[in-house]
From TrEMBL:
Protein name: Chromate transporter
Taxonomic superkingdom: Bacteria
Coiled-coil zones: none
Membrane topology: Multi-pass membrane protein
Record's subcellular location: Cell membrane
Keyword field: Cell membrane, Membrane, Transmembrane, Transmembrane helix
Transmembrane segments: 74-94, 114-131, 160-179
The organism of origin for this protein: Tsukamurella soli
Similarity comment: Belongs to the chromate ion transporter (CHR) (TC 2.A.51) family.
Length: 180
């Protein structure tokens, strides 16, 4: 258990540093490590944990706390919580002060602009990992494609799409249709 706690501390700290704005950009690595490498969760567990952490109030990244609990019980959850919050908070505090003083420097603007496509690529990677685990039927793939198209083409709040997907899933389950 001590080895699991140490691995959890190191990896959650690294993810915290990588994902100052949220765990979505590190999701691919989190999935690979927790599901494929350590086998702390199944693919289904991972999707449930990530989805639940996005739905409940609190800081972004609480999925790591749930993963920590699955890996090593309450001590794992506490280690993951501290490892998630402390490194990114320290970097955000120190970095914001430095950034405000240097915001007009050309290299700072260049670095900020260079991070945009990297972040977009990491978000697409995370989307692909989640979709691979969930979209195992044609109906789910079509629903995901429709939601992506609506999100891309309109200004509709994605919360409405999540609500619509939830309603479709409930109807599908309660009617015995099981399409989603």
């Amino acid at each position: 258990m001590t080895a699991d706690l140490l691995r959890l501390l190191v990896h959650c700290s690294l993810w915290s540093v990588l994902a100052v704005g949220g765990n979505t950009v590190a999701l691919t690595d989190i999935y690979h490590y927790t599901v494929q490498s350590q086998r702390w969760l199944t693919s289904t567990d991972f999707v449930v944990v990530f989805s639940a952490s996005q739905a409940i109030p609190g800081p972004n990244g609480m999925a790591l706390v749930m993963i920590g609990q699955k890996a090593a019980g309450v001590p794992g959850a506490l280690i993951a919580l501290v490892a998630k919050l402390v490194p990114s908070s320290v970097i955000a505090y120190a970095g914001s002060t430095w950034y405000e003083r240097n915001i007009d420097r050309p290299r700072v603007r260049l670095a900020r602009n260079a991070l945009v496509p990297i972040t977009i690529g990491l978000v697409f990677s995370a989307t692909f990992v989640l979709a691979q685990q969930v979209d195992d039927r044609a109906s789910r793939i079509i629903l995901t494609a429709i939601a992506a198209a609506v999100t891309y083409k309109t200004r509709l709040n994605p919360t409405w799409l999540i609500a619509a997907g939830t309603v479709l899933g409930l109807i599908s389950t309660f009617t015995g249709w099981n399409a989603f």
